[in-house]
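Researcher: Here's my situation. A collaborator sent me these components and asked whether they could plausibly form a single complex. I don't have experimental data yet, so a predicted model of the whole assembly would be a useful starting point for our discussion.
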Amino acid sequence: MRDDERIAGQGEGQDALDRRIDAALRSYTEPPALAEPRIALAQIMERARGERPARQPRWWIWGLAAAAVCLIAAVLAVRLMPAPRLPEIAKSPQAPGVVTVPASPDHSAIAEARVPAIRRTPHPASTAGREVAAALPKLDVFPTPEPLSPQEQALLAFATNVPPKAQQQVVNAERHIGDPITIAALKIRPLDVSEQPNSNKER
Amino acid sequence: MRPEDDAEFAGLVERQWRFACRVAWAVLRQAEDAEDAAQEAFLKIWRTQAWRNLREERAYVARSAWRAAVDRLRNAQSRRTPPHSHAGTDLSPDEIPHAGLSPEECVVAADWEAAVHRLIDSLPEELRQPLALSAEMTSREIAATMGIAEGTVRTRLMRARQMLREKIAVLEERRYAGR
């Protein structure tokens, strides 16, 4: 027998064996006896009715819970967040003797209001001023408030004791502050040539 | 539960009951156990209401039945009372336990299929299950059912068949040698 014939014969034998194996496999996977589907269904339904079917997942509950958690987190974040610190200059106590002037367009009224206010303000050198300073809470501020220097006191006195005439002038000047500026024409006297020799002579 | 739901589920059971039992039978090799596993699979489908929008009904049922059967097999093995006596053992043909007739006697008595069944039972479980399922499903369906790659299924099927051929060849030789 030639080799190819023998191989072909072996191949046929293999195919026949595979067919027999397949047939045995089919019978292998066939259960001997099975309950009828209707009977099985009755048994399954009997067991199933004894149990409650699974509930549909309630997604809205989870959504509500998530929203509540977010709300609580936001409230906690706001509460735990440090308060914005004001700049130190805003905390600094006012230096004694300094007067805060409210903004007002009427300068004459300001001037009238300033005078009695200044008179009521205790002088920093006086005992009353010291008492007021002592009554103020000690704050950690920089720079430490100091009493006014003599120059500042003089400026303050000048500002508070401006004569009414001068105040009126300032008010008038501010009224015309928007007017166009007019510059007077330059008046240059022409040179007198005849005078030059004389000046040289004088030298 | 609405009546139409019951009817829909009943239709699923009637269509797929035998198939689910065959899948479970391929794993367990005990009729009662296979039916119980199939019932558990359908009960699970009922509980999860998965039958409402099943796209691949057959594949889903196969997967559920296979899982129920494997769980049952594991429980049985943990109790050391395997449902079928030959699963998980790689016995040589002459080591197959005698249950009435030995494999050799089966062959001699022309009960060739019974002998092959015993040889299949003696295959390792990882090879036996795909081989048993291959009578009902394609490699792709087996892969989806067992949760392994299709290539792995094909490899296991080839190995299972090869081992089966070798064992049958040994039996055949003994059969003719005994004449």
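Model: Some features of this prediction you could bring to your collaborator: Helices of chain B lie at 3-28, 31-48, 57-78, 103-108, 112-121, 125-133, 139-146, 150-177. The CA atoms of residues 25 and 34 of chain B lie 5 Å apart.
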